[in-house]
Design goal:
Shape of chain A: globular
Oligomer: heterodimer
Structural class of chain A: alpha/beta
CATH class of the largest domain in chain A: Alpha Beta
Largest sheet of chain A: 9 strands, mixed
CATH architecture of the largest domain in chain A: 3-Layer(aba) Sandwich
Order of helices and strands of chain B: HHEHEEHEHEEHEEHHHHHHHHHHHHH
Helix content of chain B: 40-55%
Distance between the termini of chain A: 60 Å
Largest sheet of chain B: 2 strands, parallel
Shape of chain B: flat
Strand content of chain A: 5-15%
Radius of gyration of chain A: 25 Å
CATH topology of the largest domain in chain A: Rossmann fold
Structural class of chain B: mainly alpha
Distance between the termini of chain B: 80 Å
Helix content of chain A: 40-55%
Number of domains of chain A: 2
Chain lengths: 435, 511
């Protein structure tokens, strides 16, 4: 693993020169200093003898240096750092090691992308597996409270807004998972006053998923005796033709967006930084204004609460490092270290996100998470007004968190919005709006 | 109108816009824009003249009902106006007209002075109308209707008296056009379900038929489920279904249909079908509460069986939320507001002892076995393996958690590491890493084994940088900078100043 010949780095020459001085300086146990005299696998051992805290700190430094090297497009230095990283990072180690693995991979992908042919060839057999992704999402849903928090908040906001309504039209901006609406159906069926006539319009780019979602929901609605219609809209949200949504007279409209708005920011990437363009409104503003024209009674927005859309790599890198460290910590306290589901989840869900944030640019980079403040401004620009999340919502969210054995999850309520944090790091924020 | 025909030649300059107006019914404004046809309106609203069309000749987009243009003018008409017909009366012969235009044209026939008003402004100002009834949903400007005909009909239907009655059946209508439309189809087409119910509409017939099958199945299973005890769902479904079965054929008028179904829903709720207490206990057997739908304990995705089912059968997706053992179908009744206890119940699973998990798993397994719904048969086979796996994982997880807690002090969390690195960086002297918010490690002798004079001590990989404090001249400066970063051979370090374009400036933000 250690390169024997290092043409540009001349490690070997320096080793012999500085060995003596080094070993006398350091307070390492003697056998460590013996290692320094030779290259080869012994260095590996040395690194493995690091205590986890030291290793963690070293990883952080390596990551940052590597990020810097990659940002400068310096292949040589990136390589050096990456080598060290590969020695220390591990898919099944402690959270810092795991996070480092994915960031390291992201950086390597990024620097390789400067040779697009190499990158594409290297990834030609690694087709993203939908089964893996769905599996990861399933684990994410069942093990962590984040998705449940999102669904719960959305559903309760809808229930609050639709009190007394006889006909409810719900538009799901990413209808790939019926779980959320199954719970809403349950809640609606026990509503005092009876359930409303519910229409769900699901927007998604995947037709098969839409069909299945629709079928599943229809069956559940039948069993609960709720008049129900599912209307699949196979379209891209960026170019959504509002007529496709078929909003009818007299319906109360609710819109649900769970982590579905940030990919829309990618389309504007060509013009990012151009003040003129931003003033006129990019794709996201158009979509929000279009949605506003539906006069929804409530639109709930849940997004990752972090700033992963900075203009420079290092900015994004550091923000993302903090974010995913917190996320991986929360996983660490919920799942055992050797659990394969955890690896699946980390790899296929978060790993992909990290890779996207770090390695991709332009329209490819879809994981453009932004903080609530920015979303708030966008929504207000589009003509929405904030609707404070009700007390029942907050109570339910708190109740949800109490169910989790570890007490690292924190709920912050501010200005009518809810933020779910791990310790002190905010992870997801939820807010509700109306036209 | 005979007068019009006789004078048509005189009206050439205005003929286009007028004839289009006359063909439109019930438009009182002078800006005559062809409205889209309301499906219940027998009147044709298409115009035959081309120049009376909207500006620009563009095909007019159908307005999205209920989604008013924010710049539209909101008009509140009084109930009298909405219900009025023939407001404009000729003074000579007392003939009533719905529109002023029509009256004016009629007046020509009496040789009375007439004035026909044209479109007053070049721009078409979109108008939306609100319902005068304060308790109505459409009283709010944001829910205004875009069509005058629409608001009139709405007002009559919802807040008016039902004066029109169908001959054949007992249905009454407030709007004449509705009544006409109904009487055309009443009795013409019939669907009859096996249970004897008649339907005039195909879609409601199909919906009912689906229920009807379930009804038969449920009643067959009631006797079997009775032994399981305490599953009120089963018991109740029978009578409630019959309520629905007794629903009269749906009318073309959507509201009525909804009303009935809602009524059915009310009765369900009142019967207590969804008694929350029943479902808080995960062990409560739920043989077929959702026909097995919500019960599929495709536990964790460890087996991947959940998605194998999804993609192989192409049928209904098994209840994802049902993946939690014991978290079956309608458990989430909670206390009314918590439709989400299925979420929380799922979370509960992670903390309960394996005994509970095992128990609930076994109960759902038995539940499934009695489920006759063919849709979910695919998944049943995989239940045991999935559930056992999850069970084991739970045990492992708890042991792991305990172990992890013991070693908590020894293992810092990733976020703690980041904070520590940031703290150290903040106290460091001029360095790139500090600029990044982390700083060098030159001031952290305590962390590593032993003291070191500005070295990283134990952090130094062999041969790199450790000796650089005494290495070549000129490299000391860089060494300090990069002690925290990585360690390079001194020869490299010497070259690095030129390399790093960022130099030693702390250009990056502190987080």
């Amino acid at each position: 693993m250690i390169r024997e010949d290092t043409p540009s780095l001349s490690l070997s020459s320096s080793v012999s020169a500085s060995t003596q001085s080094f070993s006398s300086l350091s307070n390492l146990p003697p056998h460590h200093s013996a290692l320094f005299s030779v290259n080869g696998p012994t260095q590996h051992l040395w690194l493995q003898e690091l205590r986890s805290e030291e290793r963690g700190l070293y990883l952080i430094q390596l990551l940052l240096s590597c990020a810097n090297a990659v940002a400068c497009n310096n292949m040589e230095y990136s390589n050096v750092f990456l080598e060290q990283l590969t020695l220390l990072a591990s898919l099944t180690g402690d959270p810092m090691q795991r996070v480092a693995t994915y960031f390291m991979e992201g950086l390597a992908a990024r620097i390789t992308k400067s040779w697009p042919g190499v990158y594409r060839a290297l990834n030609s057999t690694q087709l993203p597996s939908i089964v893996d992704m769905l599996s990861a999402r399933q684990v994410f849903f069942s093990v962590c409270p984040y998705l449940k928090f999102a669904f719960l908040t959305v559903n309760q906001a809808i229930l609050d807004a639709m009190e007394g309504e006889k006909v409810v039209h719900l538009i799901d901006l990413e209808a790939s998972d019926p779980v959320q609406w199954l719970a809403l159906l349950q809640a609606l069926s026990v509503r005092p006053g009876g359930p409303p006539h519910l229409r769900i319009t699901g927007v998604s780019e995947r037709r098969a998923v839409l069909e299945q979602t629709g079928q599943r929901l229809s069956i559940e609605a039948e069993k609960l005796d709720i008049p129900f219609q599912f209307h699949p809209v196979h379209a891209q949200l960026e170019n959504l033709d509002i007529e496709l949504l078929r909003v009818k007279t007299g319906e109360a409209v609710a819109i649900s967006s769970v982590m579905r708005l940030h990919p829309l920011l990618a389309k504007d990437s060509r013009f990012s930084g151009s003040a003129a363009h931003e003033a006129s409104g990019g794709t996201i503003d158009q979509v929000l204004r279009t949605l506003r024209c539906l006069s929804p009674k409530v639109m709930v927005v849940v997004e990752q609460e972090s700033s992963h859309n900075g203009p420079t790599l290092l900015e994004r890198f550091i923000e993302a490092l903090h974010y995913y460290c917190a996320m991986f910590d929360s996983l660490d306290s919920t799942l055992p270290q050797q659990c394969p589901e955890r690896v699946t989840l980390e790899k296929h869900l978060f790993g992909q996100e990290i890779k996207n944030i770090v390695a991709c640019e332009g329209v490819e980079r879809v994981e453009r998470h932004e903080k609530l403040e920015k979303w708030r401004k966008r929504m207000e620009n589009a003509g929405f007004q904030m609707l404070a999340l009700s007390q029942p919502t907050v109570l339910q969210a708190k109740r949800l968190l109490h169910c989790y054995a570890c007490d690292g999850y924190r709920l912050r309520e501010k200005d009518g919005c809810l933020t779910l944090c791990w310790q002190d790091t905010p992870l997801y924020s939820a807010s509700a709006w109306h036209a | 109108c005979s007068n019009l025909d006789g004078n048509s030649t005189n009206l050439d300059e205005n003929s286009t816009s007028f004839s289009s107006k006359l063909q439109l019914e019930e438009r009182e404004e002078e800006q005559q824009l062809p409205t889209t046809s309301n499906p219940a309106t027998p009147a044709t609203t298409t115009t035959t003249v081309s120049s009376g069309q909207p500006p620009g000749g563009a095909k007019r987009k159908r307005n999205l009902p209920g989604t008013p243009d924010p710049e539209a003018e909101v008009i509140a008409l009084s109930p009298r106006t909405l219900m009025a017909t023939n407001r404009f009366v000729c003074e000579i012969c007392n003939k009533g007209f719905q529109r002023d235009q029509n009256l004016q044209l009629h007046r020509r026939g009496h040789n009375l002075p007439w004035k026909l008003r044209q479109r007053t402004s070049k721009e078409i100002r979109k108008r939306v109308y609100i319902c005068p009834e304060p308790s109505c949903v459409h009283h709010d400007p944001s829910r205004a209707l875009g069509d005058l005909t629409g608001i009139k009909k709405h007002f009559c239907r919802k807040h008016g008296e039902k004066k029109w009655k169908c001959d054949k059946c007992s249905k009454r209508y407030a709007v004449q056009s509705d009544w006409k439309a109904h009487s055309k189809t009443c009795g013409t087409r019939e669907y009859r379900c096996d249970c004897g119910t008649l339907f005039s509409r195909r879609d409601s017939f199909i919906t009912h038929r689906a229920f009807c099958d379930a009804l038969a199945e449920e009643s067959a299973r009631v006797s079997a489920a009775g032994k399981h005890g305490g599953d009120s769902n089963m018991v109740v479904v029978g009578p409630s279904m019959s309520i629905l079965g007794g629903v009269p054929p749906s009318s073309p008028h959507g509201n009525n249909n909804l009303g009935r179904v809602n009524g059915g829903g009310d009765s369900l709720a009142s019967i207590g079908i969804l008694n929350p207490l029943e479902y808080d206990v995960p062990q409560a057997p739920r043989p077929s509460s959702s026909g097995g739908g919500g019960l599929l304990p495709m536990v964790s995705s460890a087996t991947g069986s959940l998605f194998a089912h999804l993609f192989s059968s192409g049928g209904t997706m098994p209840g994802l939320h049902g993946t939690h053992p014991g978290n079956s179908g309608a458990t989430s009744m909670g206390m009314g507001i918590s439709g989400f206890s299925d979420f929380t119940a799922g979370a509960n699973q992670t903390e309960r002892g394996s005994a509970t998990a095992g128990l609930s798993l076994s109960s759902t397994a038995t539940g499934l076995s009695s489920c006759s719904s063919s849709v979910y048969n695919n998944g049943i086979g995989s239940v045991p393996s999935g559930s056992l796996l999850f069970n084991q994982q739970q045990q492992q997880q708890q042991q792991q958690q305990q172990q992890q807690q013991h070693t908590a002090t020894a293992q810092m969390s990733a976020t703690a590491l980041l904070q520590k690195a940031a703290q150290m960086g903040a106290t460091a002297s001029n360095s790139m890493l500090r600029g990044l918010g982390f700083g060098s490690l030159s001031n952290m002798p305590s962390l590593f084994a032993g003291p070191n004079s500005g070295n990283m001590g134990g952090m130094m990989p062999p041969g790199l940088g450790g000796g650089s404090t005494r290495g070549e001249d000129g490299s000391d400066r860089f060494t300090h900078d990069f002690l925290g970063v990585v360690v390079f051979a001194p020869t490299i370090v010497a070259n690095l100043e030129g390399f790093w374009p960022l130099g030693n400036r702390s250009i990056f933000f502190e987080r």
